[in-house]
Design brief:
mainly alpha, Growth Hormone, Chain: A
Length: about 425
């Protein structure tokens, strides 16, 4: 009789923390020029649009590299992929510091960072699949999401403080040093997998990547979630990009807009931890995705039309808390319904769809009224959230694998893979 021993190791939190560190710093580097756009444009002697392009290039590069990055993760493991991405991240960040006032080299460094990013983002579900039991995996993905949001917040806060003190190139050198520390921590602390799996491992015979892509795209609920993530990420990117323009018609300036944006991120940070933990505890995914989408609608309406600082602040927090929570819960949901598709492949397709949703940023701008208000874009956001809720309603939960310990004696104890009911 085949006897499989399962064990959950406390060291899983160390591995997760090391991976969160590199995800944190890549987001700091992504957003680092945005808070000083005007100063950076003067320093490099270029337009503000070209400074904005230093961040946009991350999303542009992600589209063609997402699937190849997923193949690397599934072929060589998340640790090796993340280590390669980390080394590239350090070199590229240092190049942006070495560039001085040369925009071309800064753009080259940004391209290098953009190439590294998919090796982190597309491994979000791979690590939890190796180290965490099923009832903790959405929580683990939520914590990785938290590290990304913290990275964005840290970049927004630290860059305006550091740049006047050490200069724009000096700021990039500091970030490169932190990236080097994160790479060292990852190299020393991370392990691909524990000596014994944390539970029944559906991934032992995972399909080859391209077979996995075909299989995932045949799963109806997976296709529906791609629509959900396109809507959710599009709205999140649109609101964060145009937040000053959204609140300006009601008399709020850049300082208040920055506060609203910070509350949006803080809400997202808390929601990315709290809601996935509840999902893991209940063993359900769809109800929590539905909750996140529907509860985000009042947040959008409040940010668009409420008056007064505190009502808008509460709306921003509410929007971030519920909207961001949908992503980690949904990512884990997709790994459960697409077996035997590799985790890196399903995650890569989700991240690809989320990055492509940047088009919604331009749609919101195109719907701008003559007075500059973005009410039409916010109203469209509410309508799309209703559509996303309908998509979740049509999904089906995965049937969890039966633990080997629950199998009848003499049956071999092997779990059946999770499938959609």
């Amino acid at each position: 009789m085949h006897d499989t021993h399962y064990k959950v190791y406390a060291y899983r939190w160390v591995v997760l923390g090391a991976f969160m560190f590199v995800n944190f710093i890549i987001q700091v580097l992504w957003i680092s020029y945005a808070p000083i756009t005007a100063d950076a444009a003067r320093f490099f002697g270029v337009s503000e649009l070209r400074i904005g392009f230093l961040a946009m290039v991350f999303m542009i590069v992600f589209v063609p590299l997402s699937i190849p990055a997923s193949w690397v993760i599934d072929r060589f493991g998340f640790k090796n992929a993340a280590l390669f991405g980390s080394v590239l991240m350090v070199a590229s960040a240092a190049l942006r510091g070495f560039a001085g006032s040369g925009y071309a080299l800064v753009l080259a460094g940004s391209l290098g960072l953009a190439v590294a990013q998919p090796l982190f983002l597309n491994a979000w579900t791979k690590l939890p699949a190796h180290w965490f039991p099923t009832d903790e995996r959405a929580t683990a993905v939520g914590l990785i999401t938290l590290s990304n949001l913290l990275g964005i917040a840290a970049g927004m806060v630290s860059t305006p403080i550091l740049a006047p003190m050490v200069g724009i190139p000096g700021t990039q050198y500091i970030f490169a040093a932190v990236a080097a520390l994160a790479t060292l921590v990852l190299a020393l602390a991370a392990r691909e997998s524990p000596p014994s799996p944390p539970g029944p491992v559906e991934a032992d015979d995972r399909a080859l990547m391209f077979d996995g892509v075909r299989h995932a795209m045949k799963v109806p609920s997976f296709r529906l979630f791609l629509g959900v993530v396109f809507v959710g990420m599009g709205i999140f990117n649109g609101v964060t990009t145009w937040i000053e323009e959204i609140v300006r018609p009601r008399g709020f300036g850049p300082q208040e807009a920055g506060t609203f944006g910070a509350l949006l991120l803080v809400g997202g940070i808390l929601g990315a931890v709290a809601i996935p933990a509840l999902s893991d505890r209940s063993g359900k995914r769809r109800p929590y995705m539905m909750l996140g989408i529907l509860a985000a609608i009042p947040g959008v309406l409040g940010m668009a039309w409420l008056g007064g600082f505190w009502p808008i602040a509460a709306s921003a927090f509410l929007l971030g808390f519920f909207l961001v929570s949908v992503f980690p819960v949904g990512m884990q949901f997709c790994t459960e319904i697409t077996v035997p598709t590799p985790e890196g492949t399903s995650n890569g397709l989700i991240q690809l769809c989320g990055q492509a949703s940047v088009v919604f940023v331009f749609i919101m701008d195109a719907l701008r009224a003559r007075d500059g208000s973005l009410g039409a874009g916010m109203l469209l956001s509410c309508g799309l959230l209703v559509v996303a809720a309908l998509l979740v309603f049509r999904m089906t939960e995965a049937v969890k694998a039966i633990p080997a310990t629950a199998a009848l004696p003499g049956t071999g104890g092997g779990p059946e893979p999770a499938v959609e009911s």
